[in-house]
Design a protein that fits this description.
single chain; 431 residues; alpha/beta; 5-stranded parallel beta sheet
Amino acid sequence: MKKEYSRLIEKYLADLMQEIPAVAIEGLKGIGKSVSATRLAKTVFELDQQRDKTLIENDMNILSKEELPVLIDEWQKLPAVWDYVRRRVDDYGVPGSFILTGSAKNTNLDIHSGAGRILRLRMYPLSLEERDIESPTISLASLLDQEKPYSANIQGTTNVSFNDYMEEILASGLPAIRNYSPLRRRKMLATYIEYLLLHEFSQQGIRIRQPRTLMRWLTAYAAATSSDTGYGEILDASTTGEAEKPTAKTTSAYREALERLWLIDELPVWLHGEDYFSRLKTAPKHYLADPALTALLLNFDIDTLTKSNKGRIPARTAFDEMKGGITGRLFESLIHMSLATYSVVNDASLSYIKTRNGDHEIDFIIQRGNAIVAIEVKMSQEIKGDDVQHLIWLKNKLKDDLTDALVLYTGPVAYRRNDDVAVIPAALFGA
């Protein structure tokens, strides 16, 4: 039976619409944008349905004649809608008038950006909290809101195990795909990728002359998940042994198209880190939008993930220095997907920090105003001193400017260490 998921973004969106006339929900195809928006809308127009598209093409004013809020689903199928909504906001500005959803970024220079009129809101695949595998006992909001650093109450236990987290990596954050058995799910994910690369690319006017090269590049990108590997290295890894490699311009076009489809995510460096440090890395960290897609591209199944903590990357896509660490980086990718949602609904930014010589790195920095929370991810059942050394380094550097520091891990108990670092099972941490 199809399961309905409660999405964190829905309450956040409902609150926004008390003040904001128009909101655009953007994100990967199939993550539930339309379902969530429909729950809040009084009138729905689906522009991937020819009937609705033709209706609006012939009389766009119908969008203002129906009961508000009006949902315009897959608005990019009729780009003129965006400017129409923008003008209506300029003229009237009634809160909660329009919701637009889109599965591709607006890169059309002929369309107004909507800045100041249409609020753009990113939606991600299902976070751990939204998957309803556990009830969180510690929230990001509580850490950001605490008046005194490291004072938030850290407690709770869970039966969610290491194997459960591995299952969640493979289960996908795409709501419809989670309904299938593991075998069917893999087939559906493979079909999903094929659809994006063939159909959606052509919808953007991009012709793929070397589809095998594109797939190898995407697979190499997947192998670089949770790392800041350079694009040149990714290209080299995807074309090993080929006499004629695609040009950097060609692969750059692929990457830009994949970003427009929200299939790849780039985690930026912590901009405010320059206020505290010199010589920080500036390259982004790489993630696919859903770690289930990464696992599929690398041909990982539950046996691969649970029987070996190393999870070796297939040789055809391997970066030599990364062999042996992919399982941990897949777990980090699962956490990234969750933290991205938690950050959005808390009006916070998500980034990471790494020194240029690589001696210090913090997996995630979440910031809202002056509140800064540092997070490390460890695929371990037990947290030791070495696991928190980078957090202690950051704490000593930022002193009272650091609101909290925590490790998300696969163990069962949440607690705070004597050095103030909070240790929290990933399933117990929510928005």
